[in-house]
Amino acid sequence: MNILITGGNGQVGFELQRQFAPFGTILAPTRQELDLTNAEAVDVYLEKHQPDLILNAAAYTAVDKAESEPEQAKRLNAELPAQLAGYAAKKGISLVHYSTDYVYPGNGETPWQEDSPTSPLSVYGQTKLEGDQGIIESGASHLIFRTSWVYAARGSNFMKTMLRLGRERDALNIVNDQIGAPTTARLIAQITALSFTVHGSRLSIHIPQGIYHLAPRGETSWHGFASEIFSQARKAGEALTITPESTAGIPTAEYPTPAQRPLNSRMALGKLESALGITMPTWKSQLALTLKEHLSN
User: The RmlD-like substrate binding domain covers which part of the protein (predicted)?
Assistant: First the structure.
């Protein structure tokens, strides 16, 4: 199989390469090899390489910058997924796409279900929702995994930023009224692989196609996430100048950003757990594994 992974050098894309390497030839073009912002270039690449499976981990993820660059966000978050889905539908192959909790309105305290009403608060969220809709409307065989607060041992992310600041500062103010579940890129890739069955030399999706929430169990705020990072890192012997106790929680209103963030990013996991027959791990256990990997490098 030829397995195309867009965004292959990103956090999720890198982990997908590790998970899917045994199943076929991985096509993970760099930006120099394939300009995903160029629709014509994408068409040419697809026809030349004829992928048998597409894992779309590419996205415009600069949430605040998207407010001033809506066309760039729309190309990568909405038009590209629809384009890839159109190819998948034409060729009779499957597409896996990664979406976000930002498609929901972010109010209340009840976890969102996959069929909950959507109402994005930002350009980023709106363009990601349009991407989801384009895939569904294409008729392609697909899985859409909506996830939240993605981080990894590599790349730029909240965990690594906190570790850096934890060595430089002795106090921090961090938002404490946005609630969700920090999700590791490794977990996203592992669950993606679990969604497939090997038939001879082919991979096929073995759960009903559609939208699934993919996140670990439990919930926390960004302040709670940071505090746990500092606590676990200090226990691992990291020389941090900060302590969990010197990390103060503040409301979102005191940390204004160009893009509005959802306060409620809780997502129900029952549909995914039932489909795969699994229980998702907790966010704290996933943080411990990711910290260990990062600190051992």
Answer: 1-293
